Amino acid sequence: MKMRLKFIMILALAIITLNSCSIDDGNSNAIINYEALAVESVELPQAFTFGDVHVIPVTFDFTNSCQNFAGFEVDSNLNERVITVVASVSNGNCLDEVVRTEQNLRFLAASNGTYVFKFFTGFDVNNQPTYLEYTIPVEE
């Protein structure tokens, strides 16, 4: 009798637990894509200090309500940095609206000389990428 009661209680607990779990969490705003967003403006110092981490405010526009900031893609080649703002895009009901946004890019000046920054601003009429370009020296 005790064994049967334990079995029934374990079975009931398992049914309650499994019934409350669902693979579909009801979130219809799942991320389905990533997009590059055009940079509108950047605030850079006149010079970097060697060994310091610098905060660089980057301004860009979301073009609809389904875009969220996912991060910066930074491609490095020696002292050149190509920076792209990346947005995640969900599959919810999107409203077309332009929302100006600012995020901070953290940069460590780890070498001497100068750094060249290229911030992606979109594509030209020939479908070639365009950039805001800055050359910043490093001081010790």
Shape: globular
Outline the low-pLDDT stretches: none
Given helix and strand content, the structural type is mainly beta
Order of helices and strands: HEEEEEEEEE
**CA-CA gap between termini:** 82 Å
Helix content: 10-25%
Strand content: over 45%
Q: Compute the gyration radius: what is it?
A: 25 Å
- What characterizes the major β-sheet? 6 strands, mixed
How many helices? The count is 1
Mean pLDDT: 87
Number of E-state strands: 9
Describe the model.
The mean pLDDT is 87. By secondary structure, the chain is mainly β. The chain contains one helix and nine strands; from the N terminus they run H-E-E-E-E-E-E-E-E-E. The chain has one helix at residues 2-20, and strands at residues 31-37, 39-42, 48-49, 53-64, 67-77, 80-90, 96-108, 113-123, 129-139. The radius of gyration is 25 Å and the shape is globular.
Describe the secondary-structure layout.
Elements: H1 2-20, E1 31-37, E2 39-42, E3 48-49, E4 53-64, E5 67-77, E6 80-90, E7 96-108, E8 113-123, E9 129-139
Parallel strand pairs: 3-9, 6-8
Antiparallel strand pairs: 1-6, 2-4, 4-7, 5-6, 8-9
